[in-house]
Amino acid sequence: MKLSIFLGKIIQKIARLRGGGSALPGLFMERFNPKFLARTLESLPYGVVVISGTNGKTTTTKMVVELLESQNLRVFTNKTGSNFVRGVAAAALESVNLRGILPADIAVLELDEAHAVHFVEQIHPRYSLLLNVMRDQLDRFGEIDFTAGLLQKIGENTRNLVFLNGGDNLLSRKDFSKGFVKVVKFGASEKLAEFFPNDEEIHGDNSSDLRSKHPQDIDYLLEDFSKTSAQIIHQETRKNFNLQISGIHNILNLTAAYGLVREILKSEKIKILEEDLEETISEIKPAFGRGEIIKIGEKEVEIMLVKNPAGFRSNLKSADLTNAQIMIAINDNYADGRDMSWLWDVEFSKMLDGSVAKISGIRAYDMALRLFHDEIPFENTDINTDIRSAVEEFLSQDGDKKKIFATYTAMLEIRKEISKLTEVEKIL
């Protein structure tokens, strides 16, 4: 045990010096100490929390961690956003001492849907949060019923409580959770339903039975929101929260995080410090690239991750694009998903509120063709497949209000370029 941890830490340092991430040290621990992760996490007094689903994993995990820390708990998490099992192993390797002891009370782990299944077969989480199921990364997951099946296995392997999205038409089905120990639900009120179309509605089926998908048995209900506040109802008590985050999906994620943390504290018989919880909520900021705002002199750049039609539509719907300069960057690397056909399921008319100033990424021309068919104006000179120079050109243009929509690997490249101009939170 000690030898593998010692060697793993050396590999991790070398990988960092060479600019690498978590893949190599995580792979080393998987191969040479396959029980390392299970042994490390089993010692935590309040166990493991797994967060999974198509959209919002990184943002919600960050919120849950901050809210638990506000209750004086020591929290271990895979904060780099590496949500494969080996990414979690690498994060644990970095935090343990040579005896394999993790200085934490509870682990909160963001896990990719498919990798989460492998994880829960080794380590049964005490709690899990299932966010949503959308058509995403078609080359990996195929149809959404398959993705729902993956999340169902997480729930079946959860020992204490499954916290799930009662507004998701797949997760809220009775047969989905029949094998779960305990279920608590979060969701949005019916008046907010237009912001959360399910996959059938996105693809044209607006029948009334789909619109009435919001059940009455929601335990933590996001009743309403504004640019700086949210109202959440729990057990007939309405609470108003001041916010720094924006975007309706981020606020629904906050509803999930708030409810999950309360349920964990109640289940573990830990006194809830209400004022600390509310103060922390008012200070939470978006995770990197998920509505993150970066200042460059007088310019304000907001970066929004897009990876499927539902997420892109929601970002467009909730963003203020009036008089904004817009950049779109689309890559099709493995982490983005190789199939970009989903771009045709996004309606881009909202972009008429702003000005599309740059189109970039490996699939820049596919994106440009899609915008052309929605009659969104741009010039041929606005297309530049090289993200590095595209960012430079975009930032040099007039206008202090800039919005960037980018797929995952494109977002990382963009942040890297911006970090050369101003301070940007490091994520690796």
Helix content: 25-40%
Shape: globular
Largest sheet: 9 strands, mixed
Distance between the termini: 26 Å
Count all strands and give the number: 15
Q: What is the tally of helical segments?
A: 16
**Would you identify the regions where 5 or more consecutive residues have pLDDT less than 50?**
none
CA-based gyration radius: 21 Å
Strand order of the largest sheet: 2-3-1-4-5-6-7-8-9
Structural topology:
Blueprint: H1 2-17, H2 23-32, H3 36-42, E1 48-52, H4 57-69, E2 75-77, H5 85-95, E3 106-110, H6 113-122, E4 127-130, H7 138-141, H8 144-156, E5 161-165, E6 183-188, H9 199-202, H10 208-211, E7 220-225, E8 229-234, E9 237-242, H11 248-267, H12 274-283, E10 290-296, E11 299-305, H13 309-318, E12 325-329, E13 355-360, H14 364-373, E14 383-384, H15 387-396, E15 401-406, H16 408-418
Parallel strand pairs: 1-3, 1-4, 2-3, 4-5, 5-6, 6-7, 11-15, 12-13, 12-15, 13-14
Antiparallel strand pairs: 7-8, 8-9, 10-11
Helix pairs in contact: 1-2, 2-5, 4-11, 4-12, 6-8, 15-16
